[in-house]
UniProtKB/TrEMBL annotation:
EC class of the enzyme, as a word: transferase
Superkingdom of origin organism: Bacteria
Organism the protein comes from: Actinacidiphila cocklensis
Protein name (Swiss-Prot/TrEMBL): UTP--glucose-1-phosphate uridylyltransferase
Keywords: Nucleotidyltransferase, Transferase
UniProt keyword Nucleotidyltransferase present: yes
Record PANTHER family: UTP--GLUCOSE-1-PHOSPHATE URIDYLYLTRANSFERASE
Amino acid sequence: MTRTRTRISKAVIPAAGLGTRFLPATKATPKEMLPVVDKPAIQYVVEEAVSAQLSDVLMITGRNKRPLEDHFDRNYELEETLSRKGDKSRLARVRESSDLATMHYVRQGDPKGLGHAVLCAEPHVGDQPFAVLLGDDLIDPRDRLLARMIDVQEQYGGSVIALMEVAPEQIHLYGAAAIVPTGDGDVVRVTDLVEKPEADQAPSNYAIIGRYVLDPAVFDAIRKVVPGRNDEIQLTDALRDLSHRDDTGGPVHGVVFSGRRYDTGDRGDYLRAIVRLACERDDLGPEFRTWLRSYVTEEMQE
C-alpha cells in the first residue's frame, strides 16, 4: 500500500572514526579528508546527499575532526588571494564546498559504534525520516542509489537499506540480510539481519553497504540494543528489531544495488577508486590512461 510521507530533507554523515587503517596518514588528518583525486572523500558524500535533494546535512564528528568543519566553511583569505590573481577556476572550486548545503555538526563523544553515532542525530532529526551516508562508501554520481532509496521509503514507509551481493568469503565483513522479493525488481523485504556473520551462518550473500533511509522509530530501537564487542551499539541490531515489525517503525526494505561503488575505507580499494575516477575525468583521463597503459605494459614484461 502506498503511504504519504513528508519529503526527506535531512542527511546524517557519521565521521567520528579514527581511521586506524590509514595510519600514519591519519595521525593528524581525519580519514574523511584524504583526497580522492583532488577532493576530500567526504565532499563526494555530501555532494551525493545534495544530488538527492537533501539540503540539510548533519555531520557526527569527534576529536581532531575540526578540518571537516573548516573544509565546508568559507576561507576568505584564500578566496581573496585567488580573486586578486584572477584565478576564477580555482576560486569557484574553493567556494563549491562551502555552498553545497546547510552544514551542522555534533560530537559523538565516546566512540560507541554506528548505532550510537546515529542516536546522536536525534535532537536534530526529530520525528521525520532521514538518510544516513557512511563516508567510506563512495557511490558513483551516475548511479542514483540514494534517490532511489528515498523513493522506496516514500512508497513503503519504514526504513530502507542499501544491499549489494558479495562473494561468500566476504560476507563476514558486513551486515547480512535475509530477504524475500517484492513486486519491484530491485526492492526486497528484509526479514532478518545479522552483523558480520561467518559464511556458513549468513542468511544470504546480500551485504548492507553504507546507505540508509531510516524511520525515526530507529532511535528507540537503538536505545534497546545491548552493546556488543568493544561496548559498541550496532545499527544493524536496531534495524533487525524494526525488520520484524509491520507498523510502529517497520518494515525494513532493501534496494539491491549493482552499480559503481568505491570503498575508501580499505587501502587497496582507496587506490583503485582514485585510479578509476582519474581515468574518467575529462581533464585528467586521456593523459593518465596513456601513462597507465604504458606502466602496466612495462610491469607485465618484467
